[in-house]
Amino acid sequence: MPSPILTHSYCADFYADHGYQFLKKLSQEYVLPNNLVIFSVMHCYEGSLPYINVLAELADKLIFIPKDATVGANPKLLTTIKKIPRCHIVATYNNKAYLKNNEHCEMLIRQHISPDTPFLILDHGGYFSSSITHICDTFKEQCIGITELTANGLQKYINKSISKPLVTVSHLSIKAPADFEASECIVHYSDQILREEFGLKINNSGFLKAGVIGAGNLGRGVIKHLKAKGITNIHVTDIDPRKLTQFPRDGIQACSIKYLVEHCNMLFCCTGNQSITPEMIDALSQPIFISTVTSADDELHLPDLLQQGVLTEVKTNRLTKEYKTRHGHSVYLFAGGESANTPFKTGMGDPTLYLFEAAHMLAGLELIKDATQFKPGIQSLCEDDEIMIAERWLRHFYHYQ
């Protein structure tokens, strides 16, 4: 077995190897078929290299499907990923749209399997959700199952007819530390974009008023890190009013989405599920800055806004895209509407990354081991597996005894 390729440009070989060894040890307890093919959607981050290497060693072929947001920000990283043995890259640069088509999805799968090849789908963001019924029906004997990493991705699978098991790890408690890490990155890099592009600081209360849409792990994390920067005038909204009851005692203004969009001009969209409607964009009365934790497609349905003429693109660069409303107000999407850390080097700075990667991988390994332990349709990874991952992670990275 050749040495794994764990870094691209960072001087972080030791750290990357530590993560690789953690995932490798977890995977070695499973006996896998020799001709297994894994289709894996994931971010094109340098921090993903240890995980990509482990998956490639597990499979006869790993089909790496880079997420649209980060493949554009890190095109040179693909040259490194191509060198990983048994790893094949899907080269389209609009994979989300491509995989929504049943025929395209079927063609991609057939391109990499033979009639007796078992395959597994490790999804991230619901890329296969539109075609999942067709996949399950077409490859009844070969498709082992599907795993989904994110909550917004899982949302896209709900109400689909899925005859194979789909194991989600999106709501596991061990994913919370990574969500917290991500929220810190979102606030930090939003501040950096404001400074570099507009000469503003995120805590400029005379000009910026922060609003957080979504009160889940990510939204709560964003609020915590905004407060750490000395920002006190924060508004928050959520589709579920019960989640808002915790904020007033801490001086956070709970409000409706309509009120928030009307009164705040620095928005953090933390839902992944069309948090801002076209009507709200159309009614804007001031310029607005938007930072998302997923993508503008998920948070704003940006293609629809452009097609309907609600927004018109004006200017774009690596850090920001500017749009104009029909009434001439600017809408600035940080990182082009993708997660605000997308233009920057991310993914190597915290071992929490390996918690959710381990859970995602383990869900797939359990499906391969015995798919009959799962029922058709959506279910979560079991609590015992989650506890086991947490304990091993603590031992590996923090000498837990």
TrEMBL record:
SMART domains: AdoHcyase_NAD. GO terms for molecular function: adenosylhomocysteinase activity. It holds the Pfam family AdoHcyase_NAD. It comes from the Bacteria. Residues 196-347 form the S-adenosyl-L-homocysteine hydrolase NAD binding domain. One of its GO terms (cellular component) is cytosol. GO terms for biological process: S-adenosylmethionine cycle. Signal peptide: none annotated. Belongs to the adenosylhomocysteinase family. PANTHER family: ADENOSYLHOMOCYSTEINASE (PTHR23420:SF0). This is S-adenosyl-L-homocysteine hydrolase NAD binding domain-containing protein. It comes from Photobacterium angustum (strain S14 / CCUG 15956) (Vibrio sp. (strain S14 / CCUG 15956)).
